[in-house]
Amino acid sequence: MSELLANFVCNQWQSGNGQASALFDPVLGTELVRVDATGLDLAASFAYARNQGGEALRVLNYKERAALLGVAVKVLQANRDKYYEISAANSGTVKNDTAVDVDGAIYTLSTYAKLGDGLGERQFLVDGEMSRLAKDPLFQSQHILTPNRGLALLINAFNFPAWGLWEKAAPALLSGVPIIVKPATATAWLTHQMIKDIVDAGIFPAGAVSIICGSSAGLMDQLEPFDVVSFTGSAETAQKIRAHPSVTKKSVRVNIEADSVNSALLLPSESASSEALELLCKEVVREMTVKSGQKCTAIRRIFIPQSLYAVAAQAISARLKKITIGNPRNETVSMGALVNREQFNTVKSGVMYLKEQTEVLYETGTDELIDADPGIACCVGPTLLGTRSANQSDASTRVHEMEVFGPVATLIPYRNNDLNHALKLIRLGQGSLVVSIFGTDHNELAQVVPELTDSHGRVHVVSPDIAALNTGHGNVMPQSLHGGPGRAGGGEELGGLRALNFYHRRAAVQASTSVLSQLTKLGQLS
Fold first, then answer.
1. Nearest partner of 192 among 168, 173, 209, 170, judged by Cα
2. 60 vs 39, 57, 166, 262, 463, CA distance in Å?
3. Where along the chain do its domains lie?
4. Has 281 been annotated as catalytic?
5. 65, 140, 447, 495: which one has the fewest Cβ atoms less than 10 Å from its Cβ?
6. Residue of 281, 296, 378, 379 with catalytic role
7. Who's near 132: CB < 8 A, 6+ residues apart?
C-alpha cells in the first residue's frame, strides 16, 4: 500500500483516520500516495493558525517576513529535482511543463521576497495622501492598510500544485497572515512535499503554515469574519463558496478565479504573409500543448479575419503535427498527459460537444502515443476546431460558452475588415483572464486595448518588435494582475504589491494633521 500523506495542523503532522483517496500516475496508472483528512480537529486547527500563527507573523515587519520568504526560496531551489520527479509522476508533465509550475512558483516567491524587502521595517502601509475634512487644514483624513487578524484559506486547483500554492501563499505570508492550504486532491503530492520541506526547515513561526490534504468538508464552516478565502477552480464550486454562510453572514472576504474562455485576436489589417500571423500561430500551439492545455489562461478561441481562416488553419495544424505525445519520461515526448481519467473523460466529452457546432481542422489519434498504453494513459492529442464562416461564428454559441480544459482550441473567423465583429465575438466569453492581440501597427494595437480591458484581467499585446521578449499569453507573471471579470470569477491576484491589498484591511483615520503626520511616519520607509 502506498504512503499516506499526513496533514500539518496545530504545528504537528497528523494523519486522517478515514477512507483515504489514492493519487495515481496518469500515464502508467500506478498508485503513488494516499491522502485523508478525516478526524482532524478543524476548529482547533483554524484557531491555532489564526491565533498562534497570526500573532507571530504580525510581530515581524515586512522586511523580516520577506527574509523568511527568501529562505523558503533557497529551500525550494535545493529540492527542485525532487519536485520535477513528483510532477512527472503525479501530473504527467514533461520537463518544460514542470518548469512552468515549479520554476514559476520559485520565481513568484522570490519576487515577493524582493518586494517585501523594499517595504522596510514598517508594520502597516499608508494608502494615498491626506484629505482635508474642514476649511481649516488642521483636521484631515488618512487611509492606512493593516494586516488582517485572521487566516487565509487557500483552495487550489489541480493544474498548478506548485505555482498555485505560492502565488497565493507568498503575498499572504508577506502581509503577516497565516495560511491553511487545501490542494486539489488529484495532484496534492507536490504541494504537500513543498510544504513539508518548508516545515522541516523551520522557517516560519508555529501556526503560520498549515496544509490539509483530502476532503474539503467542513473547512468553510471554520471561517470567522476576519478570515479570507482565495479559490481557484470551477465556477460551480465557486458558486457554492459564495453561497456559504461564512461568506453571506460573516462577510468573509473571497477571491475567486474560475472558468475562462480566453482569446487570441489577429487584427484585420494583417495579411497572410504578416509576421503577426506567424507569431499568433506559434503562440496558439504553445498554449494548446503546454501542460496538455490544462491552464486557466490557455487560448481557447482564436479570432482571425475570414480571408485568413484557411491559411491560419493550415499553419496551426502544421505545427501541431510536430507535437509528440506520451510518457513524459521519454525525451522524445513534447506533451504529456491529463492529470487523471476523470479529466480525460471530461475533455473527450467536451470535444464531442463542441464538434456539433464546429468542423475538425486537426486531430491526433491515440495510436500515436509514445511509451504509453492508450488503454491506461490519460493522454489526449491536440484538437483544433473551426467555425468555417463569420456567420457561423455568431451561431456557434458553444465555443463561446464552454471551456474544454485540455489541448483544445477553436479557430473563429470574423468578417473581413470588421474589428467590431471580432470584439463582439470575444465579449461572448462573458469575461476572461487574458486576451492576446497580434498586429504590426502600434497605433492600431493601442486603440484596440481599451476596448478589451473592461472584460479581461490582462491584455497581452504582441507585435513583431517584442517577439523575442514577450513572456507569452499564458504565463502569469507576479508583476502583473491575474484574474478576470464575469465568468472568470471577478477576482484579482498578484500584480506586484497590489496582491497585498486582499490580505490587509483599509481604514480611514480622521485626526489632527499633526497626529496623522506622526502616523504616516510610522507607515513609511525608515
1. 209
2. 33, 6, 20, 40, 45
3. 3-124+150-258+491-499+515-522, 262-477
4. no
5. 447
6. 296
7. 139, 140
CATH of domain 3-124+150-258+491-499+515-522: 3.40.605.10
Is 257 annotated as catalytic? yes
Query: Mind listing the pLDDT tens digit for each residue in 156-172?
Result: 999 999 999 999 999 99
How much is the mean pLDDT over the chain? 95
| pLDDT surpasses 50 at 490 | yes
pLDDT at residue 526 greater than cutoff 60? no
Q: Looking at residue 335, what DSSP letter applies?
A: B
Q: What is each CA distance from 216 to 153, 174, 249, in whole angstroms?
A: 11, 25, 20
Q: What is the mean pLDDT of residues 392-403?
A: 93
Reported as a pLDDT band with limits 50, 70 and 90, residue 513 is very high
Which position among 167, 257, 403, 493 bears the catalytic label?
A: 257
Question: What is 262-477's CATH topology?
Answer: Aldehyde Dehydrogenase; Chain A, domain 2 (3.40.309)
Q: pTM score, two decimals?
A: 0.94
What distance in Å separates the CA atoms of residue 526 and residue 524, rounded to the nearest whole number?
6
